[in-house]
Every structure is written in structure tokens, then in C-alpha cells.
């Protein structure tokens, strides 16, 4: 049935939402910007093991290789959510030491360089 003017006038008006009076900027509650959620320690260890292993392929592999291995092992032990990153760090840390050992054996010294 179509709405007629008599049926619409008999309806009560819907309640209006309560509006607060406008506040001045100085009266507004202070809102801090949301902080970024910090990464759990074991996830950070997994990421850093990957980074150390990757950098160790180029420089300081005798130092960064064991660091990458240690961080990856600790991250896996503590149950990181970034298991793949920790496994990559473990692999890259081992590769650092393998590269160091092979280059040191080929050159006969502990130090090595890419030049002739």
C-alpha cells in the first residue's frame, strides 16, 4: 500500500543521535600515533641470521658465518614464525664457512682476495 500523507504524519520521528558539543582543538583528548608492533626476538634473530649469512658470502665470512649459524639455531630453537628465513640463514652461514675453507685451502693462507 502506498504511503499517504496521513500515514506518514502519524509515525513518531526516529530518535536523533546524541551529539556532543563541538570541542576546541585544545580540549580534544590527546591521541598518540599507533606504534608499529615490534617483531618478536626469535623472528628478529631469523632475519639477522639471513642478513649475516648473505653479507658473509662477500666479506668477513670467517666471522659472519658462525654468527649466522648461531642466530639461526637460536631462532629455530625458540620457535620462530620465520622458519624459512632461519633455515636460509643456517644454509648461508654454512656456505660462508665452506667458501672460506675452500678459498683458504686453494690459496694456502687465511686471507683471500678476489683479485689476481
From TrEMBL:
Cross-referenced InterPro entries:
YqfX-like
Chain segments annotated as transmembrane: 46-74, 86-106
Segments for region (Disordered):
1-41
Q: Which residue windows does the record flag with biased composition (Polar residues)?
A: 1-10
Residue spans making up a coiled coil are: none
Please, which domain of life does this record's source organism belong to? Bacteria
Keywords, alphabetical: Membrane, Transmembrane, Transmembrane helix
Show the PANTHER family listed in the entry: MEMBRANE PROTEIN (PTHR40040:SF1), SMALL HYDROPHOBIC PROTEIN-RELATED (PTHR40040)
Task: Tell me what this protein is called.
Answer: DUF4190 domain-containing protein
Amino acid at each position: 500500500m502506498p504511503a499517504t500523507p496521513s500515514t506518514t504524519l502519524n509515525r513518531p520521528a526516529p530518535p536523533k543521535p546524541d551529539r556532543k558539543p563541538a570541542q576546541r582543538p585544545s580540549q580534544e583528548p590527546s591521541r598518540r600515533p599507533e606504534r608499529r608492533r615490534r617483531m618478536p626476538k626469535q623472528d628478529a634473530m631469523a632475519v639477522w641470521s639471513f642478513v649475516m649469512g648473505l653479507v658473509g658470502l662477500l666479506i668477513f665470512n670467517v666471522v659472519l658465518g658462525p654468527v649466522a649459524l648461531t642466530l639461526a639455531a637460536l631462532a629455530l630453537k625458540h620457535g620462530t614464525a620465520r622458519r624459512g628465513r632461519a633455515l636460509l640463514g643456517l644454509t648461508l652461514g654454512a656456505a660462508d664457512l665452506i667458501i672460506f675453507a675452500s678459498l683458504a685451502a686453494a690459496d694456502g693462507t687465511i686471507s683471500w682476495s678476489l683479485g689476481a
